[in-house]
Amino acid sequence: QVQVAESGGGLVQAGESLRLSCIASGLTFADYAMAWFRQAPGKEREGISCINRNGRITYYDDSLKDRFIISSEAANNILYLQMNSLKPEDTAMYFCTAAWNKDASMCPPPKVFRNWGQGTQVTVSS
């Protein structure tokens, strides 16, 4: 069974940084693409960034490129999201997800991801 579990969320002040972690099980990063999404109240779930099985990174939201960095520790099945210069509008539930990655040159489109974690809440105060 493919399972992911997020951690690292919390309450921070604007301008601070936070690193989220996701531990995956039932898969290997050699076969799967991993991605971070977020969902704010009243909004659709938004793709942030993906790292595929060859380490290729895609930003689903280009506006976050300067502040959010996805990375992985493949040997330990850990996915990270480094979030810098956090803003109140970054407040959301953050989700880790995984998808079978057939094409090693690409990240899957957001709709392909179907294995979700429980999420970790990030709240940024002004």
What do these coordinates show?
- This protein is mainly beta and 126 residues long.
- Helix content is 0%, strand content 50%.
- It contains no helices and eleven strands.
- It has strands at 3-7, 10-13, 18-25, 32-39, 46-51, 57-59, 68-73, 78-83, 92-100, 115-116, 120-125.
- Strands 2, 4, 5, 6, 9, 10 and 11 form a seven-stranded mixed sheet that branches. A four-stranded antiparallel sheet has the order 1-3-8-7, with no helix packed on it.
- Strand 7 and strand 8 form a beta hairpin.
- 33% of the residues are buried.
- The mean pLDDT is 96.
Task: Please name the defining characteristics of this protein.
single chain, globular, mainly beta, 4-stranded antiparallel beta sheet, 126 residues
How many DSSP-defined strands?
11
Bin the helical content. Answer: under 10%
Order of H and E elements: EEEEEEEEEEE
Shape estimate? globular
Which residues sit in consecutive blocks of at least 5 with pLDDT less than 50? none
Biggest sheet details: 7 strands, mixed
What is the straight-line distance between the termini? 40 Å
**Cα-atom Rg, whole angstroms?**
14 Å
The DSSP helix count reads 0
> What is the residue-averaged pLDDT?
96
Strand content: over 45%
Structural class designation? mainly beta
SSE arrangement:
Layout: E1 3-7, E2 10-13, E3 18-25, E4 32-39, E5 46-51, E6 57-59, E7 68-73, E8 78-83, E9 92-100, E10 115-116, E11 120-125
